[in-house]
Amino acid sequence: MTEVVSTDAKKIEELLTRGVSEVLVKESLRAKLLSGKRLRIKLGIDPTSPDLHIGRAVPLLKLRDFQELGHQIIFLVGDFTAVIGDTSDKDAERPMLAREVIEANKQTYFAQAGKILDLSKVETVYNSQWLEKLTYREIGEHADVFSVADFIARENIAKRLSAGKRVSLREVLYPLMQGYDSVAIKADVELGGTDQKFNVLAGRPLQEKYGQPPQDIVLNPLIDGLDGTKMSSSRGNYISLTATPSDMYGKVMSMGDAQIGTYFEVCTRVPMEEVAAIKTGLMDNALHPKEAKMRLAREIVSLYHSTEDAQKAEDDWQKTFSEGGVPEDIQEVVVSPETSLIETLASLGESNSELRRLIDAGAVKEVGGENHIFKDPKTPLTKGMTLRIGKHRFLKVLVK
Length: 400
Hints:
By secondary structure, the chain is of the alpha/beta class. The chain has helices at about 10-15, 25-35, 55-70, 80-85, 100-105, 110-115, 130, 135-145, 150, 155-160, 170-185, 195-200, 205-210, 245-255, 260-265, 270-285, 290-305, 305-325, 340-345, 350-360, and strands at about 20-25, 40-45, 70-75, 120-125, 190-195, 215-220, 330-335, 340, 365, 380, 385-390, 395-400.
């Protein structure tokens, strides 16, 4: 059965503006959307870590907006581009990832994306299917479309060069590969973060070289993580799509008040009229940030779990912070006797540096009993206990 494409002008306008930093070329894309033609919409994500987080879900939600209008979605996992490594948002060279790490990371990416998209209607692909087969001649032909000046003009590359930092030739290959992805799947539109602008634009001249019409581009803003800096897997300041309802709710409640409006707009699909009212209420002090944040936490948990899970997570949160209790639905980990504290905390999915920072700050302690505060990350755990990590997270440790 052929998918019916909606040309609802109001929905199209919201698609082009909500959570969008820039559209290239906007009038071209608007005309295509209004024409009723079924477009091929592409989003690629490299499996550089095992979990997707809600920062990466911003373009996934935009993909869903396109899907709900009836367009064909292509969700691409960059298992080959991950080897090269994208340095668009990095101030130093990104190391090459080992193949086995990539294979392990990518295992559940499609399933995680399925929390947002209807996967039964999505083309799911790995770019190793075509990139691994390219010859040196073909790579040379792709490279001939661009100049070195184009690459080094990028802001982060220019900064590294002026600071005397190394920029490897390998890094130059990344935008060529991402651009060729658009050729391979015949993309009409590509989505990406503002830091990806150079990479997504690379698809346009390569498509023209292969006789395809150049894709239009939709760029989304990058959101801050729990610590107020850009959300990143490497920083450990993210909210994972696989987090439990209680953990997800608690992390939303722990973030800064200044992020509430942005999160409502780009991380939920609360109607924009309501989002505008929430932003106005916060600005006029007619709405307390805690109340707004609780609504936000419910919306996010409902999106990735259910409304029932969201209500239970809220009840647990209120029990914990109003009555000093421990939520019922907390993560459990089973460890061997004498396993160190930091090895035990690794199950939280955060970086070692972030875990050490929390321990150094006295933010990891045993709940109940002696309420012991841990100061040494190498402390061996010899008994079962419940740990409180920061203000909002708990981990039940079982020693066997």
